[in-house]
Amino acid sequence: MIANTLVKSKLVCVALNDKHQLTALQDTFKKDPYKKPPTQPVLYYKPRNTWNVDGAEIEWAKDFDGQDVASMVVGASLGIVIGQETCRVSVENALDFVGGYTLVADYSLPEKNYYRPDIKGKCLDGSAPVGPNIISRSTLENLDDLQVVIKVNGERKSLFALADMERSVAELISIISHIMTLQPGEVIAVGFAGDRVPVGKGDTVEASIEGVGTLTNTLGGA
Amino acid sequence: MIANTLVKSKLVCVALNDKHQLTALQDTFKKDPYKKPPTQPVLYYKPRNTWNVDGAEIEWAKDFDGQDVASMVVGASLGIVIGQETCRVSVENALDFVGGYTLVADYSLPEKNYYRPDIKGKCLDGSAPVGPNIISRSTLENLDDLQVVIKVNGERKSLFALADMERSVAELISIISHIMTLQPGEVIAVGFAGDRVPVGKGDTVEASIEGVGTLTNTLGGA
Predict the structure, then answer these.
(1) Spatial distance between the Cα atoms of A30 and A28, rounded to a whole number of angstroms
(2) Which residue of B has its CA nearest to A177?
(3) Which member of A121, A127, A209, B82 has the lowest number of beta carbons within 10 Å of its beta carbon?
C-alpha cells in the first residue's frame, strides 16, 4: 500500500454533480424507486486502500476469479483539503474552512446503473491518486473559472468546467459539514464530469486543473 | 472527536445479511430497478468521525436546521478485527486472517428505503462504538453459536443468531478481500438483525455477545 501523506483519514467524493449529467438523467429519475432526482448530494467514500500518489502505476483491476476486467474508466475532480474542524458551517463561511486545493483522480469499473452503492467498483486498491501538491487557498481567485481536463496518452478526452457543477464548493462544504464533522486534512472531491473516460492497459492519464496541478498516472497490466 | 484505538483506518459494515430480513424483502427485490435480490454483499462504511468507545454518550442527531431528529435506531454486530494483510483469500483460509473479535454498535437515523446509500443517516459523529476489547480468535470455537443481544434500559429488544446470517464470517472475509485489500486493525461488522432497535433520548443501550463482551452507551439529548 502506498502512503498518501496529503490525505488524512477521509476522502469523500460527490457523485452526480454535473448539471449536464443531471439533465440527461431526468427520465431515469422519474422511474421507480425514487420518482424524483436526489434532493441531497450523493456521496461515496474512497477508503484508505484506494489512496495513491502522482506518478504511481494504477493496477489493472481483476475480477473475482483473478482475470483482468474488460474495461476501466477514470474521472477527475478538484480536491478540497479541509484546513480546520468543520461542523455545521454556513455557505457564506464555508470557504474559510478550506486549507487548500488539490486534484483527485478516481479510477473505477464502469457503472452499470446509478442506483446501487457501487462499493465493488469504487474501492479498488490504489485507484484514487491525490496530489501532486496542496495549493494554498489564496492562490485561486474564482473557482468557477476552473476546468478539469483529462488527457489520455496526450489527447484531451474530457473537459469539465466547475461552473457546470450543480452545487458549488461552498454549498457542498456546508451541506457535508451538517452530515458529519470534517477534520483537517480530509479531502472532498467536489464533482466529476458525468461521462467517465474509458482507459486501457498501459495508458498514461493526465488529470489537470490550471493553477492547481497535474496528476499523471499510468495504467498497469500492459 | 473520541479516538478509538481499536480500529485502524477502516470500519466496513455488511448490510442485508439477516436471512429473515432477506426473506421479508423478497417482494421488494422483484421490483424496479433491480428485479432481483443483491448478488453481492451490500457494504457501507462508518468513517472515522463515527468511531466511538464503550461508555461514551451517543450524541442525539440533529437535522439540517439544528433541531433534534424525531427518532434514532441502533443495530449491533460481531466485529472481525483483521490480523494481517488480507487480499483475495479463499473461504477455507479466511479465518486465518482474523486477529480477533469485538463488538460494533451502529446508531443511525431510521432508513426510509433500502435502495439509496444512506450516507446522511449512517455517518453521524460518534455513532459507531467499537469494543470494549479485542478477544483472541482462539477463544471462540464456533461462531455460529453466537448471538448478538441488544438491551435498552435493561430490557432485551433484539436477539440475532449468527447462524441466521446469509453469508458466514469466512465467506464475507473472502469476498471483501477480493474487492479491496484489508489491513491489520481494520474491522468488519459482519451482520445486523434486519430490524434495528428504536432508541430514545437518555436510553442506556447494551450490545453484547457472550464471550466477546458488552458495549454500553447512553443516548444524549435527555
Answers:
(1) 5
(2) B64
(3) A121
The Cα–Cα gap between A31 and B215 comes to: 42
Query: Which class for B30: exposed (0-12), middle (13-18), buried (19 or more C-beta within 10 A)?
Result: exposed
Sites in chain A below the pLDDT cut of 70: 1-3, 33-34, 112-119
User: Phi/psi zone of residue B9: left (φ > 0), alpha (ψ -120 to 50 degrees), beta?
Assistant: left
Q: Closest by alpha carbon to B166, among B26, B25, B19, B12?
A: B19
Torsion sign (Cα): A130, A172, A19, B35: positive
What are the cell numbers at B140?
471462540
Residue with cell 445486523: B192
Residue B180 to residue A125, Cβ atoms within 8 A:
yes
Residue to substitute from B31, B52, B180, B183, interface A, most A β-carbons within 10 A:
B180
Interface of B with A in 145-164 (CB under 8 A): none
Query: Which three cell numbers, joined as nine digits, stand for A132?
Result: 501532486
CB B104 within 8 A of CB B13: yes
Rounded to whole angstroms, how far apart are CA atoms A58 and A60? 6
User: Helix count (H) and strand count (E) of chain B?
Assistant: 4, 13
Backbone φ and ψ for A29, nearest 5 degrees, come out as: -60, -30
Asked if B220 and B59 count as a contact pair (C-beta separation under 8 A), the reply is: yes
Name every chain A residue with its beta carbon within 8 A of the beta carbon of B42: 116-117, 119
Place of cell 459507531: B128
ipTM of this predicted structure: 0.82
Q: Where are the alpha helices (DSSP H) in chain B?
A: 19-24, 26-29, 119-122, 169-179
- Buried residues in A53-91 as b, exposed as e (16+ CB within 10 A): bbebebbbbeeeeeeeeeebbbbbbbbbbbbeebeebee
A182/B49 Cβ within 8 A = yes
**What is the residue-level pLDDT of chain B in tens, covering all 222 positions?**
556 778 888 999 998 899 998 888 888 878 776 677 777 788 888 999 999 999 999 999 998 889 999 999 999 999 999 999 999 999 999 999 999 999 999 999 987 655 555 667 788 999 999 999 999 998 888 999 999 999 999 999 999 999 999 999 999 999 999 999 999 999 999 999 999 999 999 999 999 999 999 999 999 998
- Which domains can be identified in chain B, with CATH numbers? 11-219 (3.90.850.10)
